[in-house]
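Table S2 (text version). Query chain:
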Amino acid sequence: MSDRQRAAPEAESLPNLPPAVIHVDCDGATDIYRMHGWRYSQPEDHLFASGMRNALEFFQRNTVRATLFVIASSLDDPRKRALLQDAHLRGHELASHSFSHPLLYRLTREEKRHQLADSREKMEAALGISVRGFRAPGYSIDQESVELLAQCGYTYDSSAVPNKIIAGRLNRPLEDFLWPAQPLAGSKFWELPLPDYRPSPVPFSPSYALLLGLPLFRWGLERFSRSGAPLVLLFHFTDLADPLPASELRGWKQRIFTLSHLGKESKLRRCQIMLDLVRKHFRIISTDQLLEELNSGRALPAPGNRHPATKA
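Corresponding structure-token output:
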């Protein structure tokens, strides 16, 4: 075992540090291209394959148990299904990222139900797991979708970003998304929001930091850590995958949206720096552990400083 693997659990056992969870959206080149109206014509999704392999190795080196958000239609590809099974066997949680990756707020109620319910059923049947969590494609969550998620048996959602657009879709003030909260009266369903990045115009997530530079991540993380709120650190496969070969890229937009302008080693080195910075301010735990702490009240603000969204 490496020094890093020995040191990480000790550092993260410090009770005075707020918790952080590590999430990964498992969008492959097929999904990214389709989202932008492009066609990915290769028989194998190289971004998905290398992204998963590199992510599993990265998390193993760092003794991290992550939550992977899966587009259920990926299971139709035997190669992707095998990689997802491997992730499950390594102890990572698999959650839903919808059935086919549409923007939810554009769908009818029944179309939303298909994306939420059928993705969960497909994943559970194909992988023999229990699916508890969800993240909407493009953070396209709305109030109707939240209600449907609870009806479909999910335990939590992690789609909300603290900005006015998403707050409007959820019919709640923006301040409700600064800490995890239970948004439905009489329900134990949790919303695990992504971190507040204001006043920056963009999030300080790894994807943006790989594009715009590590100072964005350092600044955003240090500022957010002062809130004491739990951190949802969101990676995408693009952050860890090998760059796509030039033959699969047409123009600068495809290079940028797949982060193929960066080599594998450069990405992994920068992602390691980001994870090490997180460990200075947070104790990294699994999403299951975070939910346990939330249900017990340990990961909520102190009573004198409770946010309205977390009041009983």
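Notes on Table S2: The two ends are 45 Å apart (CA to CA). Confidence is low (pLDDT under 50) at residues 1-12, 306-312.
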